[in-house]
Design brief:
The complex is a heterodimer of chains A (431) and B (264). Chain A is mainly alpha-helical and 431 residues long. Chain A folds into 2 domains: 175 residues, no CATH class; 255 residues, no CATH class. In chain A, 82% of the residues lie in helices and 0% in strands. Chain A has 15 helices and no strands. In chain A, α2 runs antiparallel to α11 and α10 packs antiparallel against α11. The longest helix of chain A has 48 residues. The mean pLDDT of chain A is 80. Chain B has 10 helices and 10 strands. Chain B is globular and about 50 Å long. The relative contact order of chain B is 0.18. Chain B is an alpha/beta fold and 264 residues long. The chains are: A mainly alpha (431), B alpha/beta (264). Chains A and B meet through α10, α12, α13 and α15 of A and α3 and α4 of B.
Chain lengths: 431, 264
């Protein structure tokens, strides 16, 4: 436990993702509590329960991924320390206990801190529902056992499980399971393709029409994200970059594709989920407005849900991206020092980092866009007369701008900070 | 290393304008602020001729690494003048200093400082790439063959032994055909056999290619490979020994403290 106190900064990312995760899960968990209060009418209860259920499911997955990613980065950074512990007689089980213990402690702290904000969040959410007329005015917010329990039930096991996986990955060397990964990717791609194609089987006004393309786009993006590393290698082989920075960038990326897989996956998922969900929703809303019909409570629920889910995903992916990019770039202090000693100006080092992340962003965005389009086009064809909705361009630009700003911004700012260390010192730090 | 003399013979006679490869005038460098200030260099003045092999020795904390870093333009001295190959090192930005170093200076470090993501051949030509100069692959291969790594071009640094890595570093330092090669404890992490090989390559660079080598070391045996040894104590020059033997260097080093007190 002492190691947590010594380096609070290292655990900040884990704490933040645990905090955010617990806040989201508890906010929506409190809707369950609210729905369970006596005197809540059936419509309100259904709205609240559905929302809580759907977002709760999403939230669990996201919390797990976010905590896992931050912890993996954390454990990888501490590889030297863990190795030292192993050399001085700690068994793998002891190291595992230590890391899992730390993770659980951090997750507990994060969840505890999240209680206050999620009470406020739950109230705000209820107010939105009431303003939309989805929930009766008389319903009062309640933050009870379900909310508290769901927060702890999800965050703590997620942290412990993720820590266990991260430790096992570092203490056990090598052994890739690319076969399983490829199988999963294939299955996700097939499921996604099936879902998007079967969109055509529905009529334009079917209320479930939106579910299939959305699900298809997400499945496709998961499949593409799993295949992202080999695809990136293919891109790199066909890239004719001649400048010194570009030359270095391509070679660095080729060697580090394994390390960068997480960043690339986040980018693909982010682009696909955000673009697809927002565009589908925009098309749907416009179609309803055009037909002159008033939105049903269900449709409104769906809209609120979509926007909330995208919002949560955006925040989480941003935290994950910023954290892993920061860690990955700060980890390269020594490498940058070596480049400078070999005759690279600070500008050239920044150029290399910029080129690397530009290639990453473009690859991730292209793959994500492919998945998103696969969902958007069938939906638009069935729902309206066009093929590509006019809203898509604006939404896509916004999503890409966020992705590029986060990726390039974090890596370049971190690299600039790292470059402030004199080259000789930078090389000596990790030596 | 007969291959090396053949490969390098074209370059043995490229005499530049400056006869003095390196000149330091009253160079001083202090680390830290007022309370905990440490004087690493205290007004060092020296001159090294072209085509010489000089070892810099002294106890830990005597300022020998700082001397090398200031002379090579990696650190900016607080005061004094550093003239490399007849050109004064300006106090410009890091980018300016880097551009200045590229064509004139090569480095060999104790920790090799090869990039793990690049192969042996790519590491060797990296300085040329960064400087935007034409990459002559045949020449790079010649140099790598000369240091005994002609069959390891596609290997990564992680696949090489310490001695082999250091030889890649020497090849990288030679490829830009610099005036001066700075070596900071180049044999510090090597066994005696690999160390001998590295020292021989450094001496070859001087004898055959006409380079100037400045080597910081704490090992009297390594220092005995040089033409002369400069002793440093408490940031000041504390003597010089020409045509050194390991025994003479060790003897001198053991009494370095006495010399300084005698000089004061």
């Amino acid at each position: 436990m002492r190691s947590v106190r010594q380096r609070p900064g290292r655990f900040l990312a884990t704490l933040l993702s645990a905090f955010l995760g617990a806040a989201v899960v508890m906010t929506f968990g409190s809707l369950h509590d609210t729905a369970a209060r006596p005197g809540v009418d059936a419509v309100s209860r259904e709205t609240l329960s559905t929302t809580a259920g759907v977002v709760g499911g999403y939230g669990t997955l996201l919390v797990f991924f976010a905590v896992a990613s931050t912890l993996t980065v954390n454990v990888r950074q501490r590889a030297a320390e863990l190795e030292l512990l192993r050399c001085s007689g700690a068994t793998p089980a002891q190291i595992g206990r230590m890391v899992v213990g730390e993770a659980v402690a951090v997750a507990l702290a994060g969840s505890a801190a999240a209680i206050g904000p999620s009470v406020l969040g739950g109230r705000a959410l209820l107010a939105v529902f009431q303003d939309n007329g989805q929930v009766a005015r008389s319903v009062e917010h309640s933050f009870g056992t379900v909310a508290l329990l769901s927060g702890a039930r999800i965050t703590l096991p997620a942290a412990a499980g993720a820590a266990l996986l991260a430790v096992r990955r570092t203490t056990r060397t090598g052994r890739r399971c690319s076969g399983a990964r490829r199988f999963l990717a294939g299955a996700a791609l097939l499921a996604g393709a099936a879902a998007t194609v079967s969109t055509f089987a529905f009529s334009a006004t079917d209320p479930a029409l939106m579910a299939l393309p959305a699900y298809g786009a997400i499945s496709l993006s998961v499949g593409l994200a799993l295949l992202a590393s080999p695809l990136l290698k293919g891109v790199l082989n066909g890239l004719p970059l001649s400048g010194a920075s570009g030359w270095l960038a391509v070679r660095n990326l080729r060697e580090r594709t394994g390390h960068l897989a997480g960043i690339l996956m986040s980018l693909v998922l982010f682009t696909a989920v955000a673009t697809a969900t927002l565009t589908l929703q925009a098309v749907e809303s416009d179609a309803v407005r055009a037909s002159g019909a008033v939105k049903s409570a269900d449709a409104k629920n769906l809209e609120t849900l979509n926007v909330t889910v995208v919002g949560i995903i955006v925040v989480f992916v941003c935290v994950m991206l910023v954290n892993s990019l920061y860690a990955a770039t700060a980890h390269r202090t020594r490498e940058f020092g070596q480049q400078r000693l070999a005759g690279a100006t600070p500008g050239q080092v920044l150029g290399t980092v910029g080129t690397e992340h530009l290639i990453l962003t473009v690859t991730g965005v292209v793959l994500g866009t492919v998945a998103a389009l696969a969902g958007i086009v069938p939906f638009t064809v069935v729902r309206t007369d066009g093929v590509l909705p006019h809203q898509a361009a604006g939404i896509w630009l916004g999503v890409v701008a966020v992705a590029a700003a986060v990726t390039l911004g974090t890596s370049l700012l971190t690299a600039r900070r790292v470059l402030r260390v004199p080259a000789v010192g930078a090389v000596a730090v990790a030596a | 290393m007969r291959t090396m003399s053949r490969a390098g013979s074209r370059h043995a006679y490229d005499r530049g304008p400056a006869q003095e490869a390196l000149r330091l005038v009253k160079v001083a460098k202090t680390y830290g602020t007022d309370g905990s200030a440490v004087t690493a260099l205290d007004g060092v003045t020296l001159g090294l001729g072209r085509g010489t092999f000089t070892a810099v020795m002294g106890p830990s904390g005597s300022g020998k690494s700082t001397l090398l870093q200031c002379a090579a333009g990696l650190e900016r001295p607080d005061s004094g003048v550093v003239r490399l190959d007849g050109t004064e090192l300006t106090g410009g930005s890091e980018a300016e200093l880097t551009r200045f170093r590229r064509g004139r200076v090569g480095f060999v470090f104790q920790q090799y400082n090869l990039l793990e993501t690049l192969t042996v051949a790519q590491n060797t030509v990296l300085p040329l790439k960064l400087a935007g100069r034409r990459v002559d692959r045949r020449r790079a291969r010649e140099i790598l063959t000369a240091v005994g790594l002609g069959d390891r071009l596609g290997h990564r640094p992680a696949q090489l032994s310490g001695g082999q890595r250091q030889r890649v570093a020497i090849a990288r330092a030679l490829v830009t055909e610099p005036r001066v090669i700075f070596a900071d404890e180049p044999t510090g992490a090597l066994d005696t056999r690999s160390a001998r090989e590295v020292l021989r390559l450094l001496r070859e660079a001087v004898r055959v290619h006409g380079r100037t080598v400045v080597m910081v070391t704490h090992d009297p045996v390594a220092a005995s490979w040089a033409d002369s040894v400069l002793f440093l104590a408490d940031g000041r020059l504390a003597g010089r020994l020409d045509a050194p033997t390991a025994d003479a260097v060790a003897e001198r080093l053991a009494h370095l403290g006495d010399d300084v007190t005698a000089g004061v």
